[in-house]
Amino acid sequence: MPLLGKWSHGLSGTRAAHALGSPAPGTSNPSPSPPAPAPDVSMRICGAPGCNSGWLKPWKSRRRPVFEHEWGCSARCLQVIVASAVRRELGDGAETQPDQPHRHRVPLGLVLLAQGWITHPQLQAALAAQRASGEGRIGDWLIRHTGLPEDRIARGLGVQWNCPVLALEGFSPRAMALVMPKRFVTEFGLVPIRVAGSTILYVAFQERMKAAAAFSLEHMSGLKVESGLLTTTLLDSARRRLLDAEAVPSHMRVVADCDELAGAVAKLLDQKQPVESRLVRMHQYYWLRMWMEEGAIPTTGSLPTSAQDVEDQVFMIE
């Protein structure tokens, strides 16, 4: 569920009227209705199933700590709520491996051959050089042996993976560096490029799509993630600029098992007291993002507008 839905209760009357839609053409424009009253957080009950003690603590602030829209009245209840999220992210307990190319996908060389961008002798020569070297991607060998433009390789990969080839127009390293921990940029080879229409986050890959990473990012951001490809040169340039920009403070921690993970996250929430937080799994990592103050919660999905009052914690199970 997008995080925005729970955080937009404070819209002004004008913005609320726009959110409800404009009157049909030719009709009168009635006075805007007053905004719906904000939920009374003082009436919030503990999100842990079976907890009946929250009402016995009237002195406790019910604005924080909040985890995935649920308030926990105690560290114990927080752990119950978090443990449910950990089980959700763990799925069936199988290890998530990096996305592998589908075995039935048409090889890139054949795609380029079918498009008429290379000849059969050129493909054979590039494959022979790749085998002799024992390393390297076929696209790189084709560029080296045939002088094929880099953008043709990207377009061929786009055909192979049935996805668009992106451009860097609208790329803001300062904004995109806040999307996720830099560890994911370097390890998974994906770079967030831009947000379009306040609803779509474009993410670029270099060689093949990583659906699991894109899905996790969609779950965390509250935005629809559209994946595409960039040429090697453009992706390397975007990655360098992004890694040089300021990011949300991030810390790494290794835990023994899922129980220790749930306990560590609950303890952190109890200590930090965030006004909102969320947990997603990104391959072998568990990514916790915490918004420490109401002003840090954005109006577009859940992408921060600055590194202030937002913290990331990345966990890995041994």
The class by helix and strand makeup works out as alpha/beta
Give the helices and strands as they follow along the chain.
HHEEHHHHHHHEEHEHEHEEE
Total of DSSP H or I helical runs spanning 4+ residues: 12
Q: How many beta-strand segments?
A: 9
Low-confidence stretches: 1-38, 92-103
| Overall residue-averaged pLDDT value | 82
User: How many domains?
Assistant: 3
Proportion of β residues?
Answer: 15-25%
Helicity, as a percent range: 25-40%
Q: Between the first and last Cα atoms, what is the distance in angstroms?
A: 30 Å
Q: Major sheet, described briefly?
A: 4 strands, mixed
Q: Order of strands across the biggest sheet?
A: 6-9-8-7
**Coarse morphology:** elongated
Radius of gyration, in Å, reads 24 Å
Question: What can you see in these coordinates?
Answer:
With 318 residues, this protein is α/β, with parallel strands linked by helices. It folds into 3 domains: 4-18 and 32-93 and 248-317, no CATH class; 108-161; 173-244, GMP Synthetase, Chain A, domain 3. Helices cover 38% and strands 16% of the residues. It is built from 12 helices and 9 strands. The chain has helices spanning 4-7, 13-20, 75-90, 108-114, 120-133, 138-146, 150-161, 173-176, 182-188, 211-221, 232-244, 258-272; strands at 66-67, 70-71, 190-196, 200-205, 224-229, 250-255, 276-282, 285-291, 310-317. The protein has a 4-stranded mixed beta sheet. The protein has a 3-stranded mixed beta sheet with strand order 3-4-5. A two-stranded antiparallel sheet has the order 1-2. A hairpin with a 3-residue loop joins strand 3 and strand 4. Helix 5 crosses helix 6. The protein is elongated and about 80 Å long. The chain starts with a helix and ends with a strand. Mean pLDDT is 82; it is low at 1-38 and 92-103.
